[in-house]
Amino acid sequence: MAALRAYDILDTERDPAFDGIVQLIARVFDAPIAVVNLIDEGRQWFKAETGLGVRETPLETSFCAHALLEQERMIVPDATKDERFTCNPLVTGENGLRFYAGQILKSAEGLPIGTLCVLDTRVRPEGPTPLQLEALEVLAAQVMAQLELRRALRLQQQSESQFAAVTDAMPQMVWSTLPDGFHDYYNARWYEFTGVPAGSTDGEGWNDMFHPDDQERARIRWTHSLTTGEPYEIEYRLRHRSGVYRWTLGRAMPIRNEGGEITRWFGTCTDIDDLKRMEQSKELLSQELSHRIKNIFAVVSALIALSARQFPEAKAFAAAVRTRINALARAHEFVRPHTETSRPTVGAMT
Questions:
Q1: Fewer CB in 10 Å around end: N or C, the chain?
Q2: Does the predicted model carry a pTM greater than 0.85?
Q3: Buried (b) or exposed (e) across 91-104, using 16+ Cβ within 10 A?
C-alpha cells in the first residue's frame, strides 16, 4: 500500500496518456473492457478504463486482487470454471464476466501495486495469443513508465520548492546557471536587492547590473571559470534598487556528475559595501597616523641635525643616529596596516 501511495496517483483526474493505453489494449484483444487498476485499501481504483463507466469498485469482487498473488500475470479463460470466481457477482450476474487477462504493475522496488487488465463476457478457452500477451506486457511497462515519470516530476518539483525556500531564507543573493553559464535562477534576495523584474536578468542580462568599470573584468573572470571549471570569485559593484552601486563579493562553484562533467553552477552575491567602507576608513586613519608619525621622525631628525651644528664634536654620532631614525621611518611604512592597494614593495622603498 505504501508503494502505491508513493506515486500520489489515487483519485487523480483522467489522463489521456493512460486512457490511450487501455483503448489500445482493448483493441488488441478485441475486448469490451480494459482497465489500469490500482489496488487500494478496501477498493480497486481505475486510473483509466474503457467499457466500465466507473472509477472504482469494491475489493471483494476484484479479479486483480487475485492477480497480485501471481508473479507476472493472471489468465482466466473461463471464470465460471475457476473456483476463485464461481461465486463472484461479476461472474454470476447478467452478462457476467468470463475472460480475464491481467499483467501485474510493479513499482521500481518490485512491489505489486495493480494491473493492466482486459476483460470479456465471452469465454476464451484458447486464451490470449502470443502477440496479445506481448502487447499486454509492453503496455503494462508503459503504464509504469508513466507513473515513474510523474513521481520523478513531483519529487523534482518538491525538491525545487524546498531549494527555493532554503535559498530565499538566506541573507545572500543566490543564483544558478546551466553548464554553459546561462543564468536561469535567482532567489528572492536578488530581486529584493536589485529591484529588477523577475526573469529580466536571465541569460546574459546579469552583467548589465554591474558598474560599467567592472563589467569587462567580471565577464573575463566568469568566462575563465566556465572554460577551466575553476571556482569563480570576484569583487564588483552591483547596482542596488536605489540606483547606488554597492560593492559585492561574487562566488560560484561548479556541480559535477559522476563522469566529472559540469552539470550546473551555483553562486552567491554578498553585499560587502559596508565592509569596504570600513576598510577605506581604516586606511584613511592609518594613513593619517602614519603621516603624523613620519612628521615626528622628521622633527627628531631635524633636531639631531641642529644639535650636530651646535656641537661639532658630536657630528659623527648625530649622523649615525639620523641614519637609524630614517631607517625606522621607512620600516614604519612596512609594519603599519595596509590594504592590498596601499601595500608597499621593497623596490618602492629603496
A1: C
A2: no
A3: beeeeebbbbbbbb
